[in-house]
Design brief:
The complex is a heterodimer of chains A (269) and B (338). Chain A is of the alpha/beta class. Chain A is built from nine helices and twelve strands. In chain A, helix 5 packs parallel to helix 6. The longest helix of chain A has 18 residues, at 172-189. In chain A, 44% of the residues are buried. In chain B, helix 5 (129-148) packs antiparallel against helix 11 (241-263). The longest helix of chain B has 37 residues, at 3-39. Classes of the chains: A alpha/beta (269), B mainly alpha (338). Chain A binds chain B through residues 47, 50-52, 54, 71-77, 79-83, 86-93, 95-97, 100-101, 103-104, 106, 108, 111, 130-135, 153, 156, and chain B through 2, 4-5, 7-12, 15, 151, 219, 222, 225-226, 228-233, 235-240, 282-284.
């Protein structure tokens, strides 16, 4: 059974239809990357999964249950969400922020338990943040800060983690660090990861499954080596490319030029 | 344990101590403010005489002054300080905007128009000022909320709707003042905000709101912390963002409306006291709310004492003193922080 699925989703805002009759299933235990050009609706899809946008039609299911009918805290105990470039209050420490990850497990009559402390410690260890818990989040580097937010999401003890471009604004070393971290959680703790990515090669290397969106619809979905082809890139992104396989048999893309020289690819943007 | 770990644990403990220290200082200030407010005035009465008067001797002139004038006035000041500071702290969190205060959700303009209407058009029904001002304040807050609602509440829409509605209501106040310029003195005093002649009946009005609102505010502290991480993160953590925002705004509206309807449009406390508290104890609402409330008590009682004593026998409205002393102090804190 898929851990999340979306059925016949229509979603638009500002009078524009962004997602059109979209159906997608996220399999448990997988790393799914969502790719697509600007305006294809990939961030919108992630926001719909995270309940940050309400669908006009269609439903989103978490472990078989319609998320519109589940309580916010019940959802948050199964699903953690990391939006693009989140911001914390200026005086928050690493530990403060990671402790907020325990919020869905707490109530006004039971604010903090030993389990909460154990989970926070675990999340700090897993993200390599032990020893930094007293540091102020806003003074950390971009890569460290992103790890703190991921630690907060981990402290929720989710089964699925949704991320919107988790490597944006990071240098290449920190990008890989984040990708490796996510791959570790996926393998080591069986946490399903679904994320929007910009970098096609990173998606190819780290994902079990890739979904390519085009104008609010799924253009192709499947294993990276099936989906990421010169043909897909030409039709969806309007670029010419050479696709080879890397040392572990995943596709590597080298872009060689625009399909239409000196013209603008016509998309809905 | 490495040095780095040691130092980070150390800093967490230090921060805890610092917050407790600041809370203690605020409490001392509040206690000092209340004692000064009781002892100072046209008739200086020592603390010992006050205790004697209240506990043992219910007949002397001291008892009359203390029991009928000073004590209720001090208590009204303290409760108003708590309510306005809490309301401001809550709104700054809910709106994620440092300029948010009870003015923003129409409390002042709503109470102002309602109160001034009574004072100017029906001066013989002055006893209606407090209840009608309360109704006006709540009505303005509800109207702003309805206008800002569009499939949910965005702080920016509330702020803009608040500015527009307040401007509309304020023009009504100005119009009344222009048309009835012979009767504006009382209205003007009330618009600046003052504690003179406030007594036990006013405490009966405001105290229930302080108790209920204060408890609800403290129960909402963790929600405010989560809300401060941004809507998307808060939703991801399982917070019902819309419900929390509406509920907490309603609590702030009740706190501020009850205060404003009793003492008039005391503007300064709700904006600056929470800021000053935040600069000193940080943004964790579990500390920020109590710190704001206590500092609110200190600010109002101290300012009111100055307002009564500084130019005796003339008494100036407490709102003027508060802005005059508080604004430079706040600017100092702001510079120091940067």
């Amino acid at each position: 059974m898929p851990i999340m699925n979306v059925e016949n989703l229509d979603l638009g805002f500002a009078g524009k239809e962004v997602l059109k009759n979209l159906t997608i299933a996220i399999q448990k235990g997988q790393i799914l990357s969502i790719l697509g050009p600007n305006g294809s609706g990939k961030s919108t899809l992630l926001k719909a999964l995270a309940r940050n946008l309400k669908p006009d039609r269609g439903s989103v299911y978490l472990a078989g249950k319609n998320i519109a009918e589940l309580s916010a805290k019940v959802i948050a105990r199964t699903m953690a969400v990391l939006p693009q470039s989140p911001e914390a209050p200026k005086d928050l420490t690493v530990r403060d922020l990671v402790e907020y990850g325990r919020y869905p497990h707490q109530n006004w009559w039971r604010s903090r338990s030993a389990t909460d402390d154990t989970c926070v410690d675990w999340a700090l260890v897993e993200t390599g943040l032990t020893g930094m818990e007293g540091r102020i989040v806003s003074t950390l580097s971009g890569g460290e800060r992103q790890r703190v937010w991921i630690a907060m999401a981990l402290a929720q003890k989710p089964e699925i983690l949704l991320l919107d471009e988790p490597t944006t604004y990071l240098d290449i070393c920190h990008q890989l660090e984040i990708m490796e971290l996510l791959a570790d959680f996926n393998r080591g703790h069986n946490i399903t990861v679904a994320m929007v990515l910009h970098d096609i090669n990173q998606a190819a290397r780290y994902s079990d499954c890739v979904a390519v969106l085009q104008q609010g619809k799924i253009f192709a979905m499947g294993r990276p080596e099936e989906v990421i082809t010169a043909d897909t890139l030409r039709q969806v992104f309007g670029v010419e490319s050479i696709v080879t396989l890397d040392n572990i048999g995943k596709p590597v893309v080298m872009i060689t030029g625009l399909t239409k020289k000196r013209g603008y690819k016509h998309d809905s943007n | 344990m490495s040095n780095r770990q040691l130092s980070s644990c150390h800093s967490i403990r230090d921060r805890g101590n610092w917050r407790v220290l600041i809370l203690a200082v605020f409490t001392l200030l509040a206690a000092g403010g209340m004692i000064l407010s009781l002892t100072q005035g046209a008739l200086a009465i020592s603390l010992k005489d006050i205790v004697t008067a209240v506990l043992y001797d219910n007949s002397g002139p001291n008892w009359q002054v203390i029991w009928n004038i000073r004590l209720p006035r001090t208590l009204v000041g303290a409760l108003v300080g708590i309510n306005l500071a809490l309301a401001g702290a809550i709104l700054q969190g809910v709106m994620k905007n440092p300029l948010a205060d009870p003015h923003l959700i129409g409390i002042s303009s709503g109470a102002g128009l309602a109160g001034v209407t009574i004072m100017v058009l029906f001066p013989h029904k002055e006893y209606l000022v407090t209840p009608i001002a309360f109704v006006g304040a709540m009505a303005a807050a509800v109207i702003i909320y309805i206008l800002a609602w569009k499939g949910g509440i965005r702080p920016v829409r509330i702020i803009l709707a608040g500015v527009a509605v307040s401007a509309f209501l304020n023009s009504g106040i100005s119009a009344l003042m222009v048309f009835y310029s012979d009767r504006v003195h009382g209205a003007l005093m009330w618009m600046v905000g003052g504690l003179s002649a406030r007594s036990w009946p006013h405490i009966d009005i405001i105290l229930p709101y302080t108790i209920v609102g204060g408890i609800l505010a403290l129960l909402g502290a963790r929600r405010l912390n989560i809300l401060n991480l941004g809507d998307d993160i808060a939703r991801g953590l399982g917070l019902n963002v819309e419900f929390s925002r509406i509920g907490l705004t309603a609590v702030a509206a009740m706190l501020a409306a009850s205060a404003v309807s009793v003492v008039g449009l005391l503007g300064f406390v709700g904006l600056i006291v929470p800021h000053a508290a935040r600069l000193l104890v940080g943004s964790d609402y579990r500390y920020l709310l109590p710190a704001s409330a206590i500092l609110g008590v200190a600010a109002v009682t101290l300012s009111d004492t100055v307002a009564r004593v500084a130019f005796a026998p003339v008494e100036i409205p407490v709102g003027i003193i508060m802005a005059f002393v508080g604004a430079p102090f706040f600017l100092y804190l702001l510079r120091r922080d940067a």
